[in-house]
Amino acid sequence: MKPIKIEICLGTTCFVMGGETLQNMGDMLKKKYGAKIEVEAVRCLEVCSSDNFSKAPYARVDGEVIGEASLEKVQAVIEKKLNHE
Amino acid sequence: MSDDVIATKKLKREILVRLIRAFMSDNFAENVRLIPYAMRPKGSEVPFRCCIYKERAILRSRTIAGLGFAMEDDDEATLLSDFAIKALERKTPEPEPLTVLQNACQGCPSSRVFVTELCQNCVAKPCMNACRFEAISQVKGRSMIDADKCKKCGLCMAACPYHAIVKTIVPCEEACPVGAIAKGEDGAAYIDKDKCISCGKCVSACPFGAPHAKSQVIDVLAQIKSGKKVIAMFAPALIGHLPCTAAQMRDAFKKIGFYDAYEVAQGADVTATTEAKDFAERLNEGAEFMTTSCCAAYNEFVKKHLPEIKPYVSDAKTPLYYTAEIVKKEHPDAVSVFISPCFAKRKEVLDNQNVNYVLNFEELGAILIALGIEVDTCQEQDFVYHSSKEAREFPLSGGVARSVQAAWRGSPDAIRPCVINGLNKATVKELKSYAKTGKCAGGNLVEVMCCEGGCIAGNAGLNTIKMALKKVSDYAANGDSLKDR
Ligand code: FES
Question: What is the ipTM of this complex?
Answer without folding.
Answer: 0.93
